[in-house]
Specification:
It catalyses: L-aspartate + ATP = 4-phospho-L-aspartate + ADP. Belongs to the aspartokinase family. This is Aspartokinase. The structure is a single chain. The strands form three sheets. Strands 3-4-2-1-7-9-10-8 form an eight-stranded mixed beta sheet, with helices on both faces. A six-stranded antiparallel beta sheet has the order 12-13-11-14-16-15, with helices on one face. It has a two-stranded antiparallel ribbon with strand order 5-6. The longest helix is centred in the N-terminal third of the chain and has 19 residues. The chain is globular, with a radius of gyration of 23 Å. α2 runs antiparallel to α5, α4 packs antiparallel against α6 and α7 crosses α8. By secondary structure, the protein is of the alpha/beta class. The termini are far apart. The protein has two domains: 212 residues, Acetylglutamate kinase-like (Carbamate kinase), CATH 3.40.1160; 117 residues, VC0802-like, CATH 3.30.2130.10. α7 links the parallel β3 and β4. Helix content is 38%, strand content 24%. The site of aspartic acid has 12 residues, from loops.
Length: 417
């Protein structure tokens, strides 16, 4: 079986969905499982609904209507007949969402987040499944929440591999086209969970692992994995082949073309990962497989924006040592702060961090009781794999360098622009 993942960009409008159909016709769709994300920026739009709900904003209803309008337009563009069953099916999902919001009693933000944000994928796959049936491609709509079981860490759920493996290998139909949702799972009580933003690539890897798939292809709006993000760098080059190891490094440092959790399950079963363009499906793109010889011949650049550079120093000039550091890290873990770079001197300790869940304010107050705190907001973290002097000076040009750190293959530079 082959696993294909289509992200938000590939299904952002009716033309995108028709293009997915065209991709399938070119590359085949028998014995395929499609993992599909929410359409376009729907997840962000649902995040706004959740914010409005918790703030009791009068914009709540308007923010839901906006999402309805967007999907309805896609339906009208795809189906000539507005009596098609898809209109009722999609409408039912919106009714479920509205019912949930009106009846929910839980004050748990992360729980509510997952119940609401999951609608994006449920709706997108409903539309795709109906559309493919409509154009003559028979398929099975699979509710991923019956297959990927997780703990109840809402918004960042951990997969229960044993149960997931058993359920998937036993119940997913082979030799047909299956369509399922990326990003979602469910907990012991069957409440919806999510695997972390951009987590649909990871979903594809979970299915591949559990089904011993032949390969995974993630279809993107770029020709494959490039040596830098084309949104921030000019003259990028395509990496034709890279090793799992190199791909893990690139994803870990923030090359957002592949979600960092995707590689490990694939690598452990040596399932190849292809990153290809959904606009040119027959081009080879990038292939990621086993082999230490698959090192890129060019420097690779990764940039993470909106980072925080936090420096802590002791109030009484005592050293920041193992005991303090372990305490600080326990707090980072507790508040789900992602640390991307660490540097310490005798009495000070600096980290470049990302506050994905908006917890820094609370953490800062706790740290301030024990340490002197300095921080720079909105810094950028550049990582250069296989760096050269030329690559470094290109990154540093016109920027203030705050921290610089080098290891054998990797240079990291924190800048304020
Ligand atoms: P999806 O539609 O699957 O969610 P993403 O937007 O998450 O797709 O990923 C594709 C985007 O990743 C590209 O449009 C590009 O801007 C970005 N990107 C970041 N780093 C790289 C890289 N090294 N190579 C290719 N694309 C990259
Ligand atoms: N829809 C989710 C998100 O935007 C998951 C994904 O697209 O990978 O984060
Ligand atoms: Mg994405």
């Amino acid at each position: 079986m082959r696993i294909f993942k289509f992200g938000g960009a590939s299904v952002k409008d009716a033309a995108g969905i028709k293009n997915v159909h065209s991709v399938l016709q070119q590359v085949g769709y028998e014995d395929v499982l499609l993992v599909v994300s929410a359409m376009g920026k729907t997840t962000n739009a649902l995040e706004l609904v959740i914010k409005n709900y918790f703030e009791k904003s009068k914009e709540l209803n308007a923010s839901i209507q906006e999402i309805k309008k967007y999907h309805n337009q896609i339906l009208l563009d795809l189906f000539e007949d507005d009596k098609n069953a898809v209109f009722t099916a999609v409408n039912k999902h919106f009714l479920d969402l509205e019912y949930f919001l009106s009846s929910n009693k839980s004050p748990n933000y992360n729980f509510v987040y997952d119940q609401v944000v999951s609608m994006g994928e449920i709706i997108s796959t409903t539309i795709l499944s109906h559309y493919f049936n409509h154009v003559g491609i028979k398929n099975h709509w699979v509710d991923v929440r019956n297959f990927i079981k997780t703990d109840n860490t809402y918004r960042d759920a951990i997969v229960d591999w044993d149960t997931t493996q058993k359920t998937i290998s036993k119940n997913i139909k082979r030799k047909v086209l299956n369509i399922t949702q990326g990003f979602l799972g469910s907990d012991e009580n069957n409440f919806t969970t999510t695997l972390g933003r951009e987590g649909s690539d990871y979903t594809a890897a979970i299915f591949a692992y559990c089904l011993n798939a032949e390969s995974v292809t993630i279809w993107k709006d770029v020709p494959g994995v490039l040596n830098a993000d084309p949104r921030y760098f000019e003259n990028t080059t395509l990496l034709n082949q890279i090793s799992y190891r190199e791909a893990i490094e690139l994803a870990f440092y923030g090359a957002s073309v592949i979600h960092p959790k995707t590689l490990q399950p694939l690598q452990s079963k040596e399932i190849p990962l292809y990153v290809k363009s959904f606009l040119n499906p027959l081009l080879p793109g990038t292939s990621i497989a086993k082999g230490s010889h698959l090192e890129p011949e060019t420097s690779c650049f990764i940039v993470k924006k909106n980072q925080l550079l936090l420096s802590l120093s002791s109030i009484d000039f005592s050293f920041i040592m193992e005991e303090n550091i372990s305490e600080i890290f326990a707090l980072f873990h507790k508040y789900k702060i992602k640390v991307s770079l660490i540097q310490n001197t005798a009495i000070s300790f600096s980290v470049c961090i990302e506050d994905k869940f908006g917890n820094f304010g609370e953490l800062k107050n706790i740290l301030a009781k024990k340490f002197k705190i300095f921080y720079n907001e909105n810094v950028s973290l550049y990582t250069i794999r296989h760096f050269t002097d030329k690559a470094i000076s290109m990154v540093e040009k016109d920027k203030t360098v705050l921290v610089k750190q080098m290891s054998r293959e990797t240079m990291q530079i924190v800048t304020q622009e």
